[in-house]
Amino acid sequence: MQTEAKAHIFILGANIIYGLNYVIAKVALNVIPAFPLVLTRVAIPLLFYAVFALVFQREKVDRKDHWAFFYCGFLGVAANQMMFISGLDRTSEIHASLIMITTPILVLLIASIVLKERLTWRKIAGVLIGAAGVYLLIQSSEKSGASTATVAGDLLIMGNAMSYAFF
Q1: Which of 5, 36, 64, 137 fits a 20 to 30 Å CA distance from 29?
Q2: Domain ranges of the chain
Q3: Long-range contacts of range 161-166, CB-CB < 8 Å, 24 or more positions apart?
Q4: Angle at 16 between CA 147 and CA 38, to 5 degrees
Q5: Concatenated DSSP letters of the chain
Q6: For residue range 11-48, what is the model confidence (pLDDT) as tens digits?
Q7: What residues contact 80, with CB distance under 8 A and at least 6 apart?
Q8: How far is CA 112 from CA 50, 76, 77, in A?
Q9: pLDDT per residue over 54-83, tens digit each?
């Protein structure tokens, strides 16, 4: 099998796992409350990382980089996971997955503000089309009456997307 074909299979597999994450987490929330679930999702990988780092660490980490690790750990893991699980507990899987589509849009906007990344008309059009698509999908699901979403849950998921975008 060619390398490109293998890469496509891995990308498809990653997308399937990512998509199933919402459903699996929602089912898990029926059994485990939000905070213990987040603690489990954060503590177990942290434990594996700590053991791995102690056993295989070859380089010394500069003291100045400790704040960067803290910042990335807080935004990319702790705040991200707490808002994701708490938001998913209060909204539907559909709303959560649709709102998370905004992550690349938020990355673009944050990069343009913080890193002074140049915004082009093409990027702006992509942001507007993505935002409009998410809005239309959420509105159509609300009109069908099949939604269990709440504004608080949707805002927590949006906070999750923003936290991950800043990460």
Answers
A1: 137
A2: 3-56+67-166
A3: 161/99, 161/100, 161/102, 161/103, 161/106, 162/106, 163/75, 163/76, 163/79, 163/80, 163/83, 164/75, 164/76, 164/80, 164/103, 165/103, 165/106, 165/107, 165/109, 165/110, 166/75, 166/110
A4: 65
A5: --HHHHHHHHHHHHHHHHHHHHHHHHHHHHHS-HHHHHHHHHHHHHHHHHHHHHHH--SPPPTTHHHHHHHHHIIIIIHHHHHHHHHHHHS-HHHHHHHTTHHHHHHHHHHHHHS-PPP-HHHHHHHHHHHHHHHHHHHHHHHTT-----HHHHHHHHHHHHHHHH-
A6: 888 888 887 888 888 888 888 888 888 888 888 888 88
A7: 160, 163, 164, 167
A8: 35, 20, 23
A9: 788 777 878 888 888 888 888 888 888 899
Tokens of 105: 């849009």
Q: Which residue has the tokens 């589509």?
A: 101
CA–CA gap between residue 94 and residue 53 (Å, rounded)? 37
Dist. CA 83–CA 75, nearest whole Å:
10
Residue 18 in tokens: 């990512």
